[in-house]
Amino acid sequence: SGAEPSGVRSAAEGRALPVPPRCPPGPGQGGGGGGERRGESLCNATGQHFDLTSNAILTFIYFVVCIVGLCGNTLVIYVILRYAKMKTITNIYILNLAIADELFMLGLPFLAMQVALVHWPFGKAICRVVMTVDGINQFTSIFCLTVMSVDRYLAVVHPIKSAKWRRPRTAKMINVAVWGVSLLVIMPIMIYAGVQHNHGRSSCTIIWPGESGAWYTGFIIYAFILGFLVPLTIICLCYLFIIIKVKSSGIRVGSSKRKKSEKKVTRMVSIVVAVFIFCWLPFYIFNCLLRLRPHRAHARPQGHV
């Protein structure tokens, strides 16, 4: 049973507990000099203070995000379900997105407690549930954005042909399918999520089989392709065809109002694609760099969620 290499974050989300800064060895380390011992004590005290402060700040941020996120997503869900005129096809997809985010927010207090306590106190079962919900949220959110891009493409480029498909009933079925696909995609997380014990501390993480890190690398590539590359390609193609359609319609009509609409669509598309890349590309770059980094023997283990 091989745990993932020390210092490797969770491949599901890349989150890790803060690790207290290590004191650099003094020139007389191992010799027992009084100056070195006093310096080491001062360094340890400073490191502990820094660690407690950073943990407190991070815990506070998690709880604030949780409260704001729960309020915001609950409001979105309530408005869409409460008012009949809000049950449009686009809003049905937004509802699915809000539900996924709501579930993720419910798991944030567990993550905050792990950061505050610097260990995982909730056991293996809750760890697996939190990791699974976390992974489902990641892929469901991405797949929802992709589906919404395809829906916009059909509505703008093929409005007549797609009318028979673009119905609320179809949108609800697609939402269910998105959850099913997300569940299949994160199956490795469900299987290998567990509690790892290092130096008397437990952490909620993914415990891959084997010691070489090949499983971890494979999962990063797998998640990158299914959770970033394929969705980004589909989103870019859909919005590219939308821009081409709007531009060609503007040339035929030739009105200033149409040109303003064209600029608005182009701006919206640019923002959507830029935000998607900005949110997810750093995550995969970080995990790839982390995988390539040589793991030093003296590196302290880190906890993960």
Automatic annotation (TrEMBL):
Its main location: membrane. It is found in: Cell membrane. One of its GO terms (molecular function) is somatostatin receptor activity. PROSITE patterns: G_PROTEIN_RECEP_F1_1, G_PROTEIN_RECEP_F1_2. GO terms for cellular component: neuron projection; plasma membrane. SUPFAM superfamilies: Family A G protein-coupled receptor-like (SSF81321). Residues 1-38 are annotated as: Disordered. It is a multi-pass membrane protein. Residues 18-27 have a biased composition (Pro residues). Keywords: Cell membrane, Disulfide bond, G-protein coupled receptor, Glycoprotein, Lipoprotein, Membrane, Palmitate, Receptor, Transducer, Transmembrane, Transmembrane helix. It holds the Pfam family 7tm_1. The chain crosses the membrane at residues 60-81, 93-116, 136-155, 176-195, 215-244, 265-286. One of its GO terms (biological process) is cellular response to estradiol stimulus. Residues 72-305 form the G-protein coupled receptors family 1 profile domain. SMART domains: 7TM_GPCR_Srsx. Belongs to the G-protein coupled receptor 1 family. This is Somatostatin receptor 2. It comes from Anas platyrhynchos (Mallard).
